[in-house]
From TrEMBL:
One of its GO terms (biological process) is protein folding. It is a multi-pass membrane protein. It comes from the Bacteria. Keywords: Cell inner membrane, Cell membrane, Chaperone, Disulfide bond, Electron transport, Membrane, Oxidoreductase, Redox-active center, Transmembrane, Transmembrane helix, Transport. It comes from Thiopseudomonas denitrificans. This is Disulfide bond formation protein B.
Amino acid sequence: MSFLQPRLMFLLAFAGCSLLMLIALYLQHGLGLEPCPLCYVQRAEVMLFGAIALLAFLHNPKTTGRRIYAGLMLLTAAGGIATAGRQIWLQHLPKDQLPECLPPLEFMLEAFPLKDVIAKMLYGSSDCAERGWTLLGLNIAEMSMISFVLMLLWSLWLLLRKQ
């Protein structure tokens, strides 16, 4: 089936990531939902996944190159699953066990070394535990988890499929 060519699959992966970022930007700027530190990390993982997919589309590699790109996408999706999983876990913690709030990202970037900012963002904060907006009974972190699982499966399929 010619429509299942790896190059088209990489383009569709990039398009899916672009759609996810448009939705995230709409939720932030259209609905006024302010992202938490883990949301920013998940956005970065979606953008990295999409950038790798776009590079693979533009490069149009043979089998070994395709597997390298798919492997990188798989690792990125696994990182996204871990980040979304951390956020979902924080959402189910009792309030007295939540980590403390973090200052705004802009302040942290000015006041702390980059490695400390990254560590604090990956750890999350009580802001990450808010469930807030939902669609079909799923909050944003849960929908993000579903998206990353789909990305992982997509990458796995690209990695393991025969030419």
